[in-house]
Design brief:
The structure holds two protein chains of two kinds.
Chain A: H1 36-42, H2 46-50, H3 56-87, H4 99-119, H5 123-140, H6 155-180, H7 185-207, H8 212-239, H9 243-288
Chain B: H1 7-28
Classes of the chains: A mainly alpha, B mainly alpha.
């Protein structure tokens, strides 16, 4: 007799994990911040040396140009960061400050000052400024200038969602910062996994803002409690290692994670009901108009 | 139909030209 091979960790076996562990990196993307953008910080540094080979006016102009170029590089990096946060969400408000556009203008200003310090005149610096602005704009593009919202949702709803999501992300950031202070690598990884679950819920709410009412308690009160617990635990742990508190904190994270997962599933089930109703309505309508669907039930 | 360079190609070119321009001005002052 043939016998199906199966061991302890085969699918369906007793000891087999039912669900693959979900790493904290799920859905993560490589950031465009860094690497290339850092070149913008390095390129203008020779100005700092040049500044000391002329008179006092040269010194001031060159250092001001260096400052402007560094500020532009910093704004560009922050702008890219804001744009990534904007892209990662389905519903998002536009960045309050158009950082990349300011970066373009400041780059032009810095180049004009540097050219003016070296040669004087107006035409040369103006040309360099225009070239700088155009090249910076081509390289990095404009900032997202419009609020982003899903199809068929009014701005009031998406605004509410965006506010709650912002707040929730703040809580998550505060938790990460608090636990990073304990320098406990395992705990940080555990927290990352919990945050993936929370972000699942955030994406679900963004997809369907009607879920906000049901999820508000989770994203507000519970997350705030989790943040407070994280801060308190971090305080305790930095003073002296406390195995019991650590255990309790881990249990809290597990409990919360289970609750969040269950709630997210429930919210998604609601969306499935919506889909069923859509299908039902369309089918009825087609039926009434004399179009018969060849589905498995009718064949 | 767009040009022969895709968007990222153009962005890369613009970026390297920008860095070159900044470095050139920082070193020589543009004269």
């Amino acid at each position: 007799m043939a016998q199906r091979f199966g061991g302890k960790f085969s699918p369906g076996a007793d000891g087999a994990p039912t669900e693959p562990p979900r790493g904290g990196y799920r859905g993560a993307r490589r950031t465009r911040v860094g690497g290339r953008v850092n070149m913008l910080f390095i390129a203008p540094l020779p100005l700092a040396v040049r500044a000391f080979f002329g008179g006092p006016v040269d010194l001031a102009l060159n250092l001001a140009a260096l400052g402007l170029l560094l500020l532009a590089a910093w704004l560009t990096r922050e702008g890219l960061r804001a744009e990534e946060a904007y892209d990662a969400r389905r519903i998002a408000r536009r960045p309050a400050i158009p950082r990349k556009i300011f970066g373009s203008v400041l780059t032009g200003g810095g180049l004009a000052l540097a050219a003016y310090a070296a040669g004087g005149g107006l035409t040369g610096p103006a040309i360099y400024a225009a070239a700088g602005i155009v090249l910076h704009f081509l390289a990095f593009g404009p900032d997202p200038l419009r609020d982003k919202s899903a199809e068929g949702i009014d701005s009031f709803q998406s605004d509410r969602v965006a506010r709650v999501v912002d707040k929730a992300e703040d809580y998550l950031r505060a938790m990460t910062a608090a636990i990073a202070g304990t320098r406990d690598r395992d705990l940080e990884a555990r927290l990352d996994r919990f945050q993936v679950t929370v972000r699942d819920m955030l994406r679900t709410v963004e997809d369907d803002p009607r879920d906000l009412t049901a999820a508000r308690k989770y994203l507000g009160v519970y997350l705030m409690g989790a943040r407070d617990a994280s801060v308190k635990y971090a305080d305790l742990a930095t003073r002296a290692p406390n195995a019991e508190a650590r255990e309790n904190y881990l249990v809290l994270l597990s409990d919360l994670e289970q609750n969040f997962t269950a709630k997210t599933r429930a919210l998604m089930a609601d969306s499935t009901t919506d889909l069923d109703i859509e299908i039902e309505v369309l089918r009825d309508r087609l039926e009434r108009e004399g179009v018969h669907l060849e589905t498995k039930e009718t064949v | 139909m767009r040009g022969c360079m895709n968007e990222t190609g153009l962005q890369k070119l613009a970026f390297f030209l920008l860095v070159a321009l900044i470095a050139f001005l920082a070193v020589t002052g543009g004269v």
